[in-house]
Structure formats: structure tokens, C-alpha cells
Write a structure and sequence with these properties.
transport; WD40/YVTN_repeat-like_dom_sf; elongated; structural constituent of nuclear pore; alpha+beta; 15% strand; 5-stranded antiparallel β-sheet; 4-stranded antiparallel β-sheet; 1333 residues; single chain; 45 helices; nucleus; Nuclear pore complex protein NUP133
């Protein structure tokens, strides 16, 4: 780190256990003398090695000097190897991967040849492909550092000798190469959830001194064709020298070293490359030179075309001279980078940024035949405007160097490393300030705009080190910047002398973490980001070292181990790892007897999962630690003695029952048991170790220990406490047992698959190849790789080892199955291969879920009450994984028509088994949501949709089996009828369990078994009618009414509920049940229902219509039937009321016929027969009629409706009285009355013929017939009977007073209504309807 190391004690007097300790110490001392420092001393000779100077050298010749050094071990946390705790130092880096053996062998060969390689090699990590590379002599080694050691594939590329000869580049220039890896494999550019290993990649190398270019079109090609090369012409070489150094170019090249002074030599500073879409094995590379030139290299299998596309890209207005450059500009342009690191093959052009000494420029290259490069825009970042970038010419500011530029994965944020030389005005001393400038595109501006201010500051300048020692330009321009790792927003600065510094700005404070290995481990060559297993997360930082392999810097280490920026340099000068040779010799005498140890997965604390993004580091409390330690102590005592001495009381006192879920101490202990990593597994034996019984033995040992843990919980009464207080925690503990049992069965399945494959393959095939093949093995590799990337402490383990060890993460099996299904089962593979691989994965999924269900059934007494608890196999990630496998089987099922019957049956059985476990998972998830009172409609719809898709496809296949059986003449070629019935019966049972009514109905219809149908209806009753309701619905849609009503004999209540929506059949069912009163009401309602068109939507999406189209004659018949049913129900008072209402409605129907026939305006006879008028409409028609009888019919309608109707439509009743008064000529009657002098008897006779008299008699007379209350409750005759005397329109008398003849004949009009009320008389007309028919 940045703090100084404490002074070490003298260890010379430490005794050596080995009897050859003196010789070992002497050899170690000699080895130390020859071990180069970093930076390498120019006076140190590299040719005085003694071949026997290295003690205990392996037979392979692998150099051992760096491995046992105490300085290396100082960086490695001393871990707890018992597997019971996590004692690793959280601020230490973690060893990830060793170099491939080929690299070690090459390093050993160079050492044997007395060639010192330290400080001269180069290397890097390609973030896109996760390929690491390193140069040794004239060879380049490329490998995937994510691959486990057992499966690591290292590609060795030979640098052609002619390039070395033509360019005069010797082995001393091994670090003079720029290298780009171009991913040519489109299949590996898809999902980033579990990145694929690149299967096709091109490599472009460029010597930044001699400008020689080498191109390998496909490093994974089996043809091993020689690379394509291109060397600079003599004219081009002339341009790389400044005028004062051209004469000494050869001498300069021989004396120049990496990081040495390059004054007078214009070199390539940066190289980027991209694949050309549509052109196989064709790439384009771009390089910028320190003399301001931009070069393009068109690389293909047939050759490399190089051309200079820009002459001077660095000239600024402040620079003078004809060339626009001065001596201070010899390092620029500095850096090239693509705007979007991830390139889509469909894009025809790419944008890239170029960093100069004062601005950032954006170019576009057309990825076509001409490879045209055009400049889009440039923006000044070092100028007078501080809002744009860096403000210069400030007091105390002497010089500004933009050193490197990087862009985030989304192409939105641009990060620039800047160093400023400042002068302390107090002490007059010079110091350097390291800063990070972050820019982003302005909102609303197009990326190809020529606006001068297209970028803006994303945040203020972040100062990494405010005051650092002065460094020369050689050191400054060896620095590189990397972005994109954890913690989010952090950056890494790599210095040329071998250190990497992580800068993290959080909560307005910058903290630095320095990765600095001992000198004997070599320099840091490059840094990158570990691909994350999740799209939304960054990965941890990984560092490639020169001699110590690849290391990772966990996020937790940066957060906890970061320090505030000191007034120190980013170089190794003053580093805590800078030791004297004497101290190293003393350390070797102590380290000689200790085996080398490294930070690895054995330090992984299995009880504490490190997946959450650390916004701050959540640490367990001291009480949690004490509780867990106490539980482990009590459990270990139980294992040794079988006694539980007051365990419950002790654990309650320690607070062990205060937390539920994953944080519960019992859960953590259970998880540590099942997730224990085996200490004796290795990564170099790969599948060979997995082929042995060690995997199964390890899993069985875990299972036995977990059973002991459950016994401990039961005997100590902790089980009862958890069952009552922490049900979720207890469920998780038991689910650990489920997963462990499932993992054991999965291992047995893999063994069985391997045995079956070994029996069918050639005897020449090795058992290792058999183990490492198949879909299940591929998926295990993906799951293990995901776990390793989520946890850097597991990176040194094999993928399969991680998978079989991390039992609690069994859900990841289904996650990767969903995310990588197209990778494991590729559609372009032959059908037989897809079929075989799909069946393997199906067997795995079914084995896992059925094992868990069996475990739960066998140990059901251990489980807490399940209300509100969702089993792990019902979680969305598990369901999605199973559905992905089922989707592949469904696709294969639709494509299997041309294959044999046994393959079809095999595929059917696998899909049926997978459908069964998937539907069980959905059922459990829905039940849990309902019990918790959570929203479950969406989940329920998804459950139904997938249930129908699976079971309908299965039944369709069964029907094909049946058709094949019927078409088969011999019968032996196909399936037997019993076998088909057995398959159908099992499918029917699945459909019954999950309520797939459509399949159940189809099966019953196809077999034409009514008894089976009735049995299923009895078994599948539900709150909404269950399957019975579905059967009723299908029968009604198909208009099989007789079959529907017959089912009412066995299902009377269910059919009654269903027929409430279908009254045209309900009354028949009521009559069958002798429910006459209900039948009468139904018939009555049906007779008065409007003619409507009801729509019922079938499950297939088709619409079937049931029309209710009744004529008036039909309605009268229904009313007669209703009347008969009412009499059949009884003769009580209620029956009389019902009958009266029916009779009144009959009268209204008959009156409607007369009214519509009497109106000349209605000519449509169809309308007369079918239309049922509302009483209001019927009364209005009467008011429109011209005949005198229409006025009386209106009063009849009012009389035969209800009292509520009369109250609501009182205004309409008043209109009827007005019309009645206007039917007679009262002025003429009054004149006759006066002239003729009518007697009382004549007056009565003459008034009887008036409509007013007849209306009064019908409404108010002694013989008036009304339903419910009389007219006087709504409209009294006389005004003196009114409750409100002031209301002039609340009586018949008041209405008549408004008549035009009332002033003259008012007495006669009042006499007519009063005599009609008192006399009564004949209230019917011959043309009027009789009260009863």
C-alpha cells in the first residue's frame, strides 16, 4: 500500500530445519543476486547464472526463485484451512490464475540460456475476449485466464525471424510490441451473463519502435499458416527520427530499453484494431505516432496495406514552427480508443477518440473496402475555459500532460488521466498532481456533430494525488488508464515500473489502493475487469503480472484497504516492497522451510456470501460472530460426545434466535456445512478427479454431517424454537438438505451418462474426454464459471469443483439453463445432437426437483408450517430455467415428424416429466402468493398459459401415437393400445392435478366415455364449479342441451349455478328439481326479457352466439307456463300476488298487440310480432294514437303496472288526463246542457259517453282494477284532497282547470270525473281487452 512497511527484525539467527540449510541459503543468495529488480539496473549482468543455483528445481525446469520468497508470501493472507472460518485479510489481493505451463517452460528456457527477461517482456489482457497474452523472447503466448488450469488452452505465436532481422529488433526489444486481439467469433458476442470463450480471434502486433506489423488472421486455426508481416519502408523510417538523430538511429535502437529515454525517436504510442464486417479474416488497425501521424493498416490473409491517413493531428494554435510541433510535443498524440468497445457486426463504421496534448478528437472509419477515415469533431480539454476541461496558465502551474483516455462500455463517459507539474510558491519546489477528468456528451447532441462544445464535464476534476514527487517524462508516459471495474466508478492507473493503483471516489473522498507485488514477482503488465456473471454489475479488477500470474482486487479490498491520497508517487520509489538484497537473503533463510501459500478459494467464508454490491461494507456485528462461534462449538461438542448440554439456553442467551432468513446463525452454519470446499481437490487434474469417487464421497460426507446438524437441532430443542419463531430460517436449513440430496443424485446422473457414453464410443476415447462432454457437463461448466466470476476467491478452482461444492447455489443451475440454453443446445446442430443434449438437461432438471420433493415427503415432520413460505424450486429463476428447457423440447417435438417412433416416444416422456415438475413449481408459487395475500393474477395467467401449451402439445403427440397404432397393420411396429391408454391416463392425471380442463374434456370426448367424464367431474369439483362448469359450458356452446340437462341429475347444484346465466334452460332444470316457484320466476323474467344477443367467448378465441328472439306469442306462452308453475308451487297469499302480476303482464302484452295494430304509422309486421315495448313507450304510443280508445288504453297500462311506476311517471299520467279531456267538445256539451236543460238523469247519460267519465271510472271508480296501490296515492281527483294545497298540478281537478274550456264547462268536467268515480258503471269497451281470458 502507500504506507511505509515496518522495519523487519533480523532473522539471520533463525535455525533451518533442513540439514542442507546452509547450501540452500547460499543458493538462494546467489539466486537473489541474479534476480532482476524492477526497474532493472543497467549495470546488473544477466549472464552469471549458475544452473544449479536454484534449490529443489522441478524436473520440468520451471524456475522456482520467485515462488518461496518471503516477499511474495507477504502479499498472501495466511488462511484458515480448516474450513470453519474466514480469517483471510479482506484488504489483500487474491490469486486468480497461474501462467500456462508453456509460459513457465519458456521462461525456464530463457533462464537456462542466461537471458534475463524481467522488465523486457510485454503483456496485456483483452477485456472483450478475456484473453491474456505475454511475450517471451520471440514468442507470444495467448490464453483465456478464465479457463481452469485443467482446460486452459494456450496458443503460441512465433514472431517471424525476418521481422526481427529486417527491423534489427533483438531479444532486448521483447517489450517493444503493441498487440491487439480482435474477436472474430460472433457467437461469443451475445449475452454477457456468462461470457463465452472466444473460438476465433485475430491478433495484430506492431513494434512501436520499428513500426513492423504482424497479423495472424485466426490464432485458433488448425492450419497453422504463417503470419502476414509488413515492415516500414526506408522513407517511413526516415520520418520517425527527428533531424538531429537520424544519423544515430541504428545505434540508438541497440541501446534503447523499455521505459528508457526515447529522445529523438518518434514512436507509435497506441494501437487499436477492429474486424471488418462481411470480410472473413480481414481487420483494420489504427496507430498514432508521436510525430503527429495517424496510420492505418488493412490486414488480411493476403497481406497488409499500410498508409498514412493524417499527417499532423496535434497542431494547436499555441504551437509555433512550420510543422506545428515543438520539443515538448514529442510524446503526442498519446492514446487511441474506440468510442464503443463492443462492436456490432451489422455496423458499417466505427468511431474512435484520439488524445493529443491539448484536445480530444473524434474520427470515423468506414469498415469497407477503402477504409476511409474522416474527422468528426475535436474539443479542447486544456485551455482557458475550466468548464470544458482543464484550465491552464494558473498560478503555480507549469505544465499539463494528458496521458491516457478510456471510454466506458456504453460509449457515454470519457475518462482522461492528467498530470500537472506545479510549483510550490512557498518552498519553490516542484511537484506533480495526478487527476482524473471525466467528460460526457451533452444531451441532445448527435455524436457526428461538428459542434466545438460537444462534451461537458460529468463531474469536477478528481484529484488522485494532490502532491507527488517530480517524475521524468519517460515515467509519466509509461502510465496507462483502465476503467469499468468494481467499485463502480473506480479507475486503475498502471505505471511503467510495475505498479497498479486503484482510485475510488466515494462520498466526496478519493481513496487509493495500490497493488504492488514484490520485485521478484515482476512488473504489473496490464489490468482489466473480470467479466461479471450479471449484466447489471461490473466485475472485479484483475491484474496481469510479469512473473506471478494473474491476481484480482476484490471490491471489499478497495473499500476497506483504500487510503487517502498521500504525498507520494505512483511509482515504486519509496514503496514498502523495496527491500535490500541483504534483507531478501535473510528472508530466504526463513522461507526455505515453508511451502508457498497463496490466497485462494480455501479462504472463502462459506457462511457469508459476497454477492451484494458494496456501497459500504456491511459487516456482521460482534453478537453475530459470537453466536455463530458458540453454535459451532456446541455442534462440534455434539459430534464428539453426542451430548447437548443446555445448548438451547446458551444459544438463546447469545441472541441466536433474533434473526430470520439467510442471516440466521443456524442457516449460516448449515450453509457452511453443505458449501465446504474440499481441500484435496486440485485444478490440474480436471475431469480425471471428477471421474473418481471423491466427488460422491465428499457429497455424502456433507450429507451425513448435515443430518447430524438436524439431529443436534432436534435434541437441543432448537428445532422447536425455530419452528415457532423463525420458520423461514428452518425452511432454508431443510432446503439445504434438499439441495444436497439433489446434488448427489445429479452426480449419479452424470456418472450414468458417462458410463452410457463410454459404452458407445470408441475404446480409444479417454475417460477424461467422456467426462468432459455432453450438455450436462457444459452446463456444469457454465454454472461453475458464473460462481467463480461472482466470487474472485474461487477463481483458482475448477468449474466443476465449484459447482459440486457450492450446493446452496443450486438455483444458478436453472439460471444458466435459461440464460445459456442456445449455447448449450445450438439450433444449428444436427437434430440428433439437439435431441440428445435436450434429454440430458431434462433428466437433470427432473432429477433435481423430484429428489427435493422426495426429500420433503420423507422428512415432512421436520418442516415448519408452509403457510406463506415459497419453496426454493418454486422461485422465478427455477421456473424460467425449466421453461427454457421445455421450450426446446416443444420445438423439437414439432420438428420430429421424420424420425422413428422410439425417438418420438422418448422425447414425449422427457417433455411429460419436465412439464410435471414445472407445473408443480408454478402451483407452489401461486399457493404461496395467495397465502401471503400478494398479487398473483399475472403469475396465475402465466401458469395457465404454459400449462395449456405443454399439456396440449403432449396430447397432440398422444393422438399421433394413437393414429399410428390404428394405421399399423401388424400392430407390433407401433405402440400397443394398452400402452397408449397408459400414457393417456398419466397425462389425464397431470391435467386433473393442474386443472387443464381443455385437455381433460378433449380426452373424454375422444374416448367417448361418458362414465369417465362423470367421474372426473366428481373428482374435479371446485369453488367455481371446477371441471363441471367447463363441461356445462362446452355442451351449451355446442347446443347439446339434452346432454347438459341430463348431467343435472348428478350435478344439480352445479348446473343450477351455471344455468343462472342461461334462463332459457334454467326453468327446465328447476322443474326437474320440483322447484316450481323458482321455475315460475324464471319463466316470468324470461317472458319479459328483451331480445338480446349474448356472446360467449370460447377458449379457442372463437365467438359463439346464443340468440334470445321471442315473439309476443312466445312471451304469452311463457307467462301461461309461469302461471301454471306458480299454481303448482302452492295456493298461499304469495302465490296469489305472483299470479296477479302474471295476469297484469299478460294484459299489457295483449294491449301492446292492439295498440301496434291500431297505429297506421307502424307497417313492419315483424316489428309488431317481436318487439317488446316498455310500459312507458307503450303509453307514449297511446298518446300518439288518434282514436278515443287510445286514451283509455293508456290508463289501462298505468293500472296494470306497479305503484312505483305510476309514481315515477306521474308527469306522463298527467299528460294522459290532458289528452282525455281534449277528446270531447266540452264547449258544445255545455251549450246543449244549457239549451236543452238536461235533467240529472240525462246529464249522467250524456257524461258517461265522455272519456273523462270513463277514465275516472277505470282509475277511481268502485270497479277500478289496479295493481298494488290505487291512483289516488299518486294523483287525487279533487284539489281539496291534496296534501299540498298550493300545488296547482297535483290533482286531476287542477289539470282540468288548465283546459281551455274549463272557464265555461268546468262544472260539467268536474261532474264527469266525480260521477265516474261514484257511479262506476261499465268500465270496458267492446274493442277493449277483457280483464281475463
Amino acid at each position: 500500500m502507500f504506507s511505509s512497511a515496518p522495519k523487519k527484525k533480523n532473522t539471520n539467527a533463525t535455525p533451518l530445519r533442513d540439514h542442507g540449510g546452509a547450501a540452500a541459503a547460499a543458493a538462494a543468495a546467489a539466486n537473489l543476486f541474479h534476480s532482476p529488480a524492477t526497474p532493472q539496473s543497467r549495470q546488473r549482468s544477466s549472464f552469471i547464472f549458475n544452473e544449479n543455483a536454484v534449490p529443489n528445481r522441478p524436473s520440468t525446469g520451471t524456475p522456482a526463485p520467485w515462488a518461496p520468497r518471503l516477499s511474495v508470501l507477504a502479499r498472501v493472507p495466511q488462511v484458515d484451512r480448516s474450513g470453519k472460518g474466514d480469517d483471510t485479510d479482506p484488504i489483500k489481493p487474491v490469486f486468480v490464475a497461474e501462467f500456462p505451463q508453456l509460459v513457465r517452460d519458456e521462461q525456464a528456457t530463457l533462464l537456462h540460456k542466461r537471458v534475463s527477461v524481467e522488465g523486457l517482456g510485454s503483456g496485456g489482457i483483452d477485456k472483450d475476449t478475456s484473453l491474456a497474452w505475454i511475450t517471451c523472447g520471440n514468442r507470444v503466448f495467448i490464453w483465456s485466464y478464465l479457463s481452469p488450469a485443467s482446460g486452459m488452452r494456450c496458443v503460441v505465436l512465433e514472431i517471424p525471424s525476418k521481422v526481427l532481422e529486417d527491423g534489427d529488433t533483438g531479444k532486448s526489444d521483447a517489450g517493444s510490441w503493441l498487440l491487439c486481439v480482435v474477436n472474430c467469433d460472433d457467437t461469443s458476442k451475445g449475452t454477457n451473463k456468462v461470457p463465452k470463450h472466444c473460438s476465433s480471434a485475430a491478433v495484430i502486433m506492431c513494434n512501436w519502435k520499428t513500426r513492423a506489423v504482424i497479423y495472424w488472421p485466426d490464432i485458433y486455426s488448425e492450419s497453422h499458416n504463417p503470419p502476414v508481416t509488413s515492415v516500414a519502408s526506408s522513407d517511413e523510417l526516415e520520418t520517425v527520427l527527428t533531424p538531429d538523430r537520424r544519423s544515430s538511429f541504428g545505434k540508438h535502437r541497440r541501446q534503447s530499453k523499455v521505459g528508457g529515454s526515447l529522445n529523438g525517436l518518434h514512436t507509435f504510442n497506441s494501437l487499436i484494431a477492429s474486424v471488418v464486417p462481411g470480410c472473413k479474416f480481414v481487420c483494420v488497425a489504427l496507430a498514432c505516432s508521436s510525430n503527429g501521424e495517424l496510420w492505418q493498416f488493412h490486414c488480411g490473409p493476403d497481406g497488409i496495406r499500410r498508409r498514412k491517413v493524417y499527417e499532423n493531428v496535434t497542431r494547436s494554435p499555441q504551437q509555433g514552427g512550420e510543422s506545428g510541433q515543438n520539443v515538448s510535443n514529442k510524446w503526442y498524440p498519446r492514446s487511441l480508443t474506440w468510442r464503443f468497445p463492443h462492436h456490432s457486426p451489422k455496423e458499417s463504421n466505427r468511431q474512435f477518440f484520439l488524445l493529443t496534448d491539448h484536445e480530444i478528437q473524434c474520427f470515423k472509419v468506414e469498415l469497407s473496402s477503402d477504409m476511409h477515415v474522416s474527422k468528426l469533431w475535436s474539443q479542447e480539454i486544456v485551455g482557458t475555459d475550466a468548464e470544458v476541461g482543464i484550465k491552464k496558465d494558473l498560478a503555480g502551474q507549469k505544465k499539463i500532460w494528458p496521458l491516457d483516455v478510456q471510454v466506458d462500455d456504453h460509449g457515454k463517459v470519457i475518462t482522461i488521466l492528467v498530470v500537472t507539474l506545479c510549483n510550490d510558491r512557498i518552498s519553490s519546489s516542484s511537484y506533480m498532481q495526478y487527476s482524473i477528468l471525466t467528460l460526457q456528451y451533452k444531451s441532445g447532441l448527435d455524436s457526428e456533430t461538428t459542434n466545438d462544445r460537444i462534451l461537458e464535464k460529468k463531474s469536477p476534476m478528481e484529484v488522485i494525488i494532490p502532491k507527488a514527487r517530480y517524475e521524468d517524462e519517460d515515467f509519466l508516459f509509461s502510465m496507462r488508464l483502465r476503467v469499468g471495474g468494481k467499485p463502480s466508478g473506480s479507475t486503475v492507473v498502471i505505471s511503467g515500473d510495475g505498479t497498479a493503483t486503484v482510485s475510488h471516489y466515494h462520498r466526496n473522498l478519493t481513496r487509493l489502493y495500490k497493488f504492488d507485488l514484490p520485485y521478484d514477482a515482476g512488473k504489473v503488465l496490464d489490468a482489466s475487469v473480470l467479466p461479471s456473471a450479471d449484466d447489471y454489475e461490473e466485475g472485479a479488477w484483475v491484474v496481469l503480472t510479469e512473473k506471478a500470474g494473474i491476481w484480482a482486487i476484490p471490491e471489499k479490498a478497495v473499500i476497506l484497504g483504500g487510503v487517502e491520497p498521500p504525498e507520494r508517487s505512483l511509482s515504486r520509489k519509496g514503496s514498502s516492497n523495496e527491500r535490500s538484497a541483504q534483507e531478501e537473503i535473510r528472508n530466504l533463510t526463513v522461507a526455505g522451510n515453508f511451502a508457498p501459500r497463496r490466497a485462494s478459494s480455501e479462504a472463502w467464508g462459506t457462511g457469508d456470501r459476497q454477492r451484494a454490491v458494496l456501497s459500504g461494507v456491511a459487516r456482521r456485528t460482534a453478537q453475530d460472530e459470537e453466536s455463530e462461534a458458540l453454535l459451532n462449538l456446541l455442534f462440534n461438542d455434539f459430534l464428539s460426545s453426542g451430548q447437548v448440554d443446555r445448548a438451547l439456553e446458551k444459544l438463546e442467551t447469545s441472541g441466536s434466535f433474533q434473526r430470520d432468513g439467510e442471516t440466521n446463525v443456524f442457516v449460516r452454519t448449515s450453509k457452511s456445512i453443505i458449501d465446504t470446499l474440499a481441500k484435496h481437490w486440485t485444478t490440474t487434474r480436471g475431469a480425471e478427479i471428477l471421474a473418481m469417487a471423491v466427488v460422491s464421497t465428499q457429497l455424502l460426507e456433507k450429507q451425513q454431517k448435515h443430518q447430524k446438524f438436524l439431529q443436534f437441532l432436534a435434541l437441543s430443542k432448537c428445532h422447536e424454537e425455530l419452528c415457532s419463531r423463525q420458520r423461514h430460517a428452518l425452511q432454508i436449513i431443510l432446503e439445504h438438505g434438499e439441495k444436497l440430496s439433489a446434488m448427489i443424485q445429479l452426480r449419479e446422473l452424470q456418472n450414468m451418462i458417462s458410463q452410457n457414453r463410454s459404452a458407445s464410443v470408441n475404446s480409444l476415447g479417454s475417460s477424461s474426454d467422456i467426462q468432459m462432454s455432453g450438455a450436462l457437463w457444459d452446463l456444469i461448466q457454465l454454472v461453475g464459471e458464473r460462481a467463480r466470476r461472482n466470487t474472485v476467491l474461487l477463481m483458482d478452482r475448477d468449474n466443476a469443483e465449484v459447482f459440486y461444492s457450492k450446493v446452496s447455489d443450486l438455483e444458478d443451475f436453472f439460471y444458466c439453463l435459461d440464460a445459456e440454453i442456445e449455447y448449450v443446445i445450438r439450433p444449428e446442430h444436427p437434430f440428433e445432437i439437439q435431441f440428445q443434449r435436450a434429454c440430458e438437461l431434462t433428466n437433470a432438471c427432473v432429477t433435481i426437483i423430484t429428489t427435493c420433493l422426495n426429500y420433503k415427503n420423507e422428512n415432512h415432520l421436520w418442516y415448519p408450517p408452509p403457510e406463506g413460505l415459497t419453496p426454493w424450486y418454486c422461485q422465478p429463476v427455477v421456473r424460467k430455467g425449466i421453461w427454457s428447457g421445455a421450450s426446446v423440447l416443444l420445438r423439437l417435438l414439432s420438428e420430429i415428424s421424420g424420425f422413428d417412433k422410439s425417438s418420438k416416444l422418448d422425447l414425449y416422456s422427457h417433455l411429460e416429466a419436465l412439464a410435471e415438475v414445472l407445473l408443480e413449481a408454478y402451483s407452489g408459487a401461486v399457493t404461496a402468493k395467495i397465502e401471503c395475500g400478494e398479487e398473483h393474477k399475472g403469475l396465475l395467467n402465466e401458469y395457465w398459459e404454459r400449462r395449456d401449451a405443454l399439456l396440449e402439445s403432449l396430447y397432440q403427440q398422444v393422438k399421433e401415437f394413437e393414429a399410428t397404432y390404428k394405421d399399423s397393420i401388424e400392430g407390433s411396429e407401433g405402440m400397443t393400445g394398452d400402452a397408449i391408454l397408459k400414457i393417456m391416463s398419466h397425462l389425464l392425471s397431470i391435467a386433473k392435478r393442474h386443472g387443464c380442463y381443455k385437455v381433460m374434456w378433449t380426452i373424454c370426448c375422444d374416448v367417448n366415455d361418458s362414465e369417465l367424464l362423470r367421474n372426473i367431474m366428481h373428482e374435479s369439483l371446485g369453488p367455481d364449479g371446477g371441471f363441471s362448469y367447463y363441461v356445462f359450458k362446452k355442451l351449451h356452446e355446442s347446443r347439446q342441451f339434452s346432454e347438459l340437462l341430463r348431467l343435472g341429475e348428478e350435478f344439480p347444484e352445479e348446473l343450477s349455478v351455471f344455468l343462472k346465466e342461461h334462463p332459457d334452460l334454467l326453468w327446465l332444470h328447476d322443474l326437474f328439481l320440483h322447484q316450481y316457484s323458482s321455475a315460475s320466476e324464471t319463466l316470468h323474467e324470461l317472458a319479459l326479457a328483451q331480445n338480446v344477443q349474448s356472446t360467449s367467448v370460447a377458449e379457442e378465441g372463437e365467438q359463439e352466439y346464443s340468440k334470445l328472439n321471442l315473439k309476443l306469442s312466445d312471451r304469452k306462452n311463457l307467462l301461461y307456463l309461469s302461471k301454471i308453475a306458480a299454481f303448482a308451487a302452492g295456493t298461499d297469499a304469495g302465490t296469489q300476488v305472483k299470479v296477479g302480476r302474471i295476469e297484469a303482464d299478460l294484459k299489457i302484452l295483449k294491449l301492446q298487440e292492439q295498440v301496434m295494430e291500431g297505429l297506421p304509422s307502424i307497417k313492419d309486421k315483424q316489428l309488431v310480432e317481436h318487439q317488446l315495448l316498455h310500459p312507458e313507450d307503450l303509453i307514449k304510443l297511446c298518446l300518439e294514437g288518434e282514436g278515443r280508445e287510445f286514451s283509455l288504453w293508456a290508463f289501462d297500462v298505468f293500472a296494470w303496472t306497479s305503484a312505483s311506476f305510476r309514481k315515477v311517471y306521474r308527469r306522463l299520467l298527467e299528460d294522459c288526463w290532458r289528452k282525455a279531456a281534449s277528446q270531447d267538445d266540452w264547449s258544445k256539451l255545455h251549450d246543449s246542457y244549457i239549451v236543452e236543460g238536461w235533467s240529472d238523469e240525462e246529464t249522467l247519460q250524456n257524461l258517461k259517453s265522455t272519456i273523462l267519465f270513463q277514465a275516472s271510472s277505470r282509475c277511481y271508480g268502485p270497479g277500478a282494477v289496479t295493481f298494488e296501490e290505487g291512483f289516488d296515492q299518486v294523483l287525487p281527483l279533487r284539489q281539496e284532497n291534496m296534501e299540498t294545497p298550493g300545488d296547482t298540478s297535483s290533482s286531476v281537478e287542477a289539470i282540468l282547470m288548465q283546459h281551455k274550456d274549463f272557464p265555461v264547462a268546468g262544472k260539467l268536467m268536474l261532474m264527469a270525473i266525480m260521477l265516474g268515480c261514484e257511479e262506476g258503471g261499465d268500465t270496458t269497451y267492446e274493442e277493449g281487452p277483457s280483464p281475463m281470458e
